[in-house]
Amino acid sequence: MRALDWIVLIAFLVFIALYGLWRGRRTRTAEGYLLAGRSLRWHTVLFSVMATQASAITFLSTPGQAYADGMRFIQFYFGLPLAMVVLSVTVVPLFHRLKVYTAYEYLEQRFDGRVRTLAAALFLIQRGLAAGLTIYAPALIFATILGWDIFWMNLIFGGVVVLYTASGGTRAVSHTQTVQVLIIFTGMMLACYMLLHLLPGPVGLLDAARLAGKLGKLESIDFSFNLQSRYTLWSGLIGGFFLQLSYFGTDQSQVQRYLTGRSVTHSRMGLLFNGLLKIPMQIFILFLGVLVFVFYQFTAPPLFFNTGQVAAIRQTPQAAAYAGLEQQHAALQVEKQAAIGGLLEAMHRKDTAAAGIAEAGLKRTSSKMQAVRESAINLLADHHPGMDRKDTNYVFLTFLVNYLPVGLLGLVIAAIVAAAMGSTAAELNALASTTTVDFYRRVRRRQTQTTAAVAGSGRSGSNDSAAAPAGAQASAAEERRTVRFSRAATIFWGFFAVLFADYASRLGSLIEAVNILGSLFYGTILGIFLTAFYMPRVNGREVFRAALAAEALVLACFLLSDISFLWYNVVGCLAVMGLGRMQSLFRRP
Amino acid sequence: MNAGDPLREHAQLVNAGDEKPLVFKKWRSWYMLLIAVLAAIILLLSWITQVFR
After folding, report:
1. Could you tell me which residues of chain A have a Cβ less than 8 Å from any Cβ in chain B?
2. Tens digit of each residue's pLDDT (9 = 90 or more) over A408-459
3. Is residue B46 within 8 angstroms of chain A, CB to CB?
4. Closest Cα to residue A308, out of A376, A412, A380, A385?
5. What confidence score (pLDDT) does residue A392 get?
6. Inter-chain contact A213–B51, Cβ cutoff 8 Å?
7. What's the pLDDT score for residue A216?
8. Do residue A74 and residue B45 have CB atoms under 8 angstroms apart?
9. CB A551, CB A267: distance < 8 Å
């Protein structure tokens, strides 16, 4: 990165911090701090929901996934619009009318305090760890490609997020997310323009699509019903539906976003527009990866995109062997370019016979290049046995750093940092809210009730006219105390996330295991909520036992079977509902 | 369903005082639009997969 890129990035960070502080000023009540006074319009809700779901990894990893595996990943999102419809019909009006601050508050009204505590605690564990990864994962990629120090990156980006989130609460988070989404879209549009601009002269968008299609990168839909295959139409529609329903309906980091809507209409419109825009946005991001793939058909790609691993092997005796593989790869690249030239020419002439021959030649060369790459990865793995053999996370950033002009690189990096900050801010905000509302406030209320009972018995004959202003003063003081506690909780979770991010750098391959933690818990939490909504005969004790049993079943699936993780959400949810209902049927009157 | 039935209370809570959506007159139109757009995207992607194969 050059000076101009740094200026753009630093200007963005300073602007976001100041804008967040300004937007969140004069927040004094608990409702103002935790839910922006339930006053936001639908478009702010929409951008906030989108920015919460799209983390930096969405923009770094998704194009790399398309580069390696084509557009199949899009199927993961097919359940999302259906989930938005169901949530708009059920959860949104219910939460609005009950005036809850967190999703888990509703569970105490429907069941009992124990179920509420269980769901809130599961959320804190899972989201607390995920917040650390949201900070760590992009930091690792930036550190590898740009040579930045992970610790300082975590501290600076995490520090800015904690500053405005702790100061202004949800209002600051939602408004900064709106700006962040606009910067993200601008950055991605510019990256797309540059990719098309960097393709060789006669190769246009249609040629790029044809070439990607011939090499299998545009295959998006898999109609087969295979439980082991991670992304199919059915796992996306069914498993994805349950996952998105759970994420948007029971994860406080999302629930909090639409509870800020000024009415049911504004919350619903935010969610429904998210349902309309999310899949096209993901198609666009995946297509960026396809364009990077096409670009690297005409320009020699690195043999392995994780430059940290490559730099390490250059210091060892295997450096010569690795350099030999690089030479083979480069020679095959020249051969491949000739085959691509022949294929495009044949396609322009509509000469199907010649196109078929050129395509076969191209596929042969691509297979040889893949074999050379595998040899290189084996060599790297021999030197560093625990290394991640996938380099998809590094593909897009490598392209950006090497080919984007000065200034524009700073803007696109700022867009990726914006995505990291938006999702982290929402997570910290939700963790603080749950800690405050589902734990602190309940303890405080119990203490206050005990104190009031003692005081009441002591002054049974006192004058009531003095009690009203004193009560209002006490209530205002309690509000201020709640806001102060929420700020402290945000700072605590911010420190926890940054420390866990630093610790995660030493976890190695365990990171992936922590990353699928969400799917291990989401199904159970969703099952608790769906039982609450649709099974009025099931009581708190029954759903609590069913939730524990369902969680054990999901963990057994994870440890003992090779079922794809999207299906855990279905298993956990149906197990809670089924076991809860069975207990209620056999309950003694 | 009897009065005081939890399912009935839940339904009342969800449906009471429903607010109007933007653009359309009924929320149902929005829900249909989302499902139609999803179906159109799946069909379009299947078509692209076939055409560019």
Report:
1. 42, 71, 74, 78, 81-82, 84-85, 88-90, 93-94, 97-98, 209-210, 212-214, 218-221, 233, 263-265, 268-269, 272, 275-276, 279-280, 283, 533-534, 536-537
2. 999 999 999 889 899 999 999 999 999 999 999 999 888 877 877 777 666 5
3. yes
4. A380
5. 85
6. yes
7. 87
8. yes
9. no
pLDDT digits (tens, 9 = 90+) for A276-334: 999 999 999 999 999 999 999 999 899 998 888 898 889 888 899 999 999 999 999 99
The answer, for B39 touching chain A at a CB cutoff of 8 Å, is: no
Of A214, A275, A536, the CB nearest to B5: A536
Q: How far apart are CA A77 and CA A97, in angstroms?
A: 29
Contacts of A283 in chain B (CB under 8 A): 41, 45
Residue A29 buriedness (CB in 10 A; 0-12 / 13-18 / 19+): middle
- How far, in Å, are A44, A168, A339, A430, A476 from residue A25 at the CA level? 18, 6, 61, 19, 18
B contacts of A70 (beta carbons < 8 Å):
none
Distance between CA A232 and CA A534 in Å, rounded? 29
Rounded to the nearest 5°, which phi and psi values hold at A482?
-65, -45
- When the pLDDT of each residue in chain A is averaged and rounded to a whole number, the result is 88
Complex-level ipTM beyond the 0.85 threshold: no
And the tokens for A398?
A: 């490598």
Q: How many other CB atoms are found less than 10 A from the CB of residue A463?
A: 7
The beta-carbon neighbor of B34 closest among A81, A93, A537 is: A81
Contacts of A360 (CB under 8 A, 6+ apart): none
**CA-based diameter of chain A, in Å?**
103
